[in-house]
Amino acid sequence: MGRLAQTDGLTDVQQEILSTVREFVDKEIIPVATELEHRDEYPTKIVEGLKELGVFGLMIPEEYGGLGESLLTYALCVEEIARGWMSVSGIINTHFIVAYMLKQHGTQEQRDHFLPRMATGEVRGAFSMSEPGLGSDVSAITSKGVRDGDAYVLTGQKMWLTNGGSSTLVAVLCRTDEGHPEGTAPHKSMTTFLVEKEPGFGQVEPGLTIPGKIEKMGYKGVDTTELIMDGLRVPADRVLGGVTGRGFYQMMDGVEVGRVNVAARGCGVAQRAFELGVAYAQQRHTFGKPIAQHQAIQFKLAEMATKVEAAHAMMVNAARKKDSGRRNDLEAGMAKYLASEYCKEVVEDAFRIHGGYGFSKEYEIERLYREAPMLLIGEGTAEIQKMIIGRRLLEEYRIQG
Q1: pLDDT single digits (tens) 78-116
Q2: Distance CA 269, CA 267 (A)
Q3: How confident is the model at residue 256, as a pLDDT?
Q4: Which of 68, 65, 69 is nearest to 18 (CA)?
Q5: Closest by alpha carbon to 309, among 276, 278, 281, 271?
Q6: Closest CA to 120 of 20, 168, 171, 53
Q7: Which of 131, 256, 364, 379 is catalytic?
Q8: Average pLDDT of the residues in 45-63
Q9: Most buried in the list 17, 23, 146, 360, measured by CB within 10 Å?
């Protein structure tokens, strides 16, 4: 194992968890990832293995049957898993966003009901905020929840649900006007609903349809879907936290965890691309010597390794800031932006090192080349991250007077 992307200050328990996950990735994910990805096949055996390792309960408190670990531990595990196959890290990402939101914002009844089964992977979470016509403009959502007796009736169309088909619990953001008079700021009239459903596609519950998987350039294996609500009844006690109007803040809190996750994924994919590039450069000979001995290739490897190291350091910083209980939207935005951009660049350099073979599906770098672009847009585009970073910097450096 190389020296890149090491993390100082880890406990013995954290190191043991990471070692176990790394061994699982090397033995159970990397050997089959490209074949499964090319078939767009859901990695059932891998997911079952992650359940046995306790990964689905990594950040869930021990009182609910989880391991009670930190966001940093989770992010480092995600980095390892994404190094094997980024789609697998996506399977656990939205699950953890929902578990985190329940832990932070759910009622005691909601935590007691869901978290023990989420810790084992019996209940699998998905996260639904985006819609077909709004992208990152969350304030423009049109899905609505209307009170009807002891339930809410949800209507609307959601987009880009990771785990849309395989999940059994979806946190859905809708607009609720109840108790929020006309003119209320849009973000103060949104509510998160905890929607339970059967796994699968088609009409999975009365009033709830999960169409088939969206065909994608990369990020295959994991199911990405739409979600259509047409008169879906959700009990009033499934409003996250028990109070309407708090959904925007709950979702944004979850997104900060998600952005650290995306940064970790970028780190993992970039690390794997570097491993493939540096190995191939020592095996491929031109002009009588390995191409790794040519200065041009050494320069590429130096740049790639520096980017892997820098992205990892920023991701770790963002996770530790969140774990400390402090606001980390600036650090999470920076980490997500830098890690995804550097991931794209490192993957492309590894692709170039492979030459014509990088274009062949027989080589792993071809898969990584198609996977990296998703990180540029997942959990908010680079442009959205820059807006967040810029606004926070102006808050921090505002001129007085």
Answers
A1: 999 999 999 999 999 999 999 999 999 999 999 999 999
A2: 6
A3: 85
A4: 69
A5: 271
A6: 53
A7: 379
A8: 95
A9: 17
Question: Six-digit token pair at 257?
Answer: 């965890």
Nearest to 200 by CA among 212, 216, 183, 214: 212
| Residue 379 a catalytic site member | yes
- pLDDT for 220 equals 95
The SS3 assignment for 23 reads helix
pLDDT higher than threshold 80 for residue 184: no
Q: What is the pTM of this model?
A: 0.93
Looking at residue 234, what DSSP letter applies? E
H-only helix segments in 230-328: 247-283, 295-323
Helix boundaries (H) for 85-136: 86-105, 108-120
- What is the dihedral angle through the alpha carbons of 373, 382, 25, 168, rounded to the nearest 10 degrees? -90
CA distance 27 to 348: 26
- List the structure tokens of 109: 């009844």
User: In the block, which residue shows the tokens 């809410």?
Assistant: 152
Distance spanning both ends of the chain, measured CA to CA: 54
The tokens for 128 are 């639904």
Residue 218 near residue 368 (C-beta atoms within 8 A): no
d(C-alpha 371, C-alpha 231), whole Å: 36
What is the rounded CA–CA span in Å between residue 209 and residue 94? 19
Share of the chain above pLDDT 70, in %: 98
Which amino acid does the sequence have at 63? E
Length of the chain: 401
Nearest Cα residue to 58 out of 76, 74, 81, 79: 74
Give the residue carrying structure tokens 């969206």.
214
Q: Which helix (H) or strand (E) holds 161?
A: strand 151-162
Q: What is the 3-state secondary structure (H, E, C) of 359-388?
A: HCCCCHHHHHHHHHHHHHHCCCCHHHHHHH
Give the span between the Cα atoms of 385 and 332, in whole angstroms. Answer: 9
Assigned token pair, 343:
């991931």
Token digits for 29? 């994910």
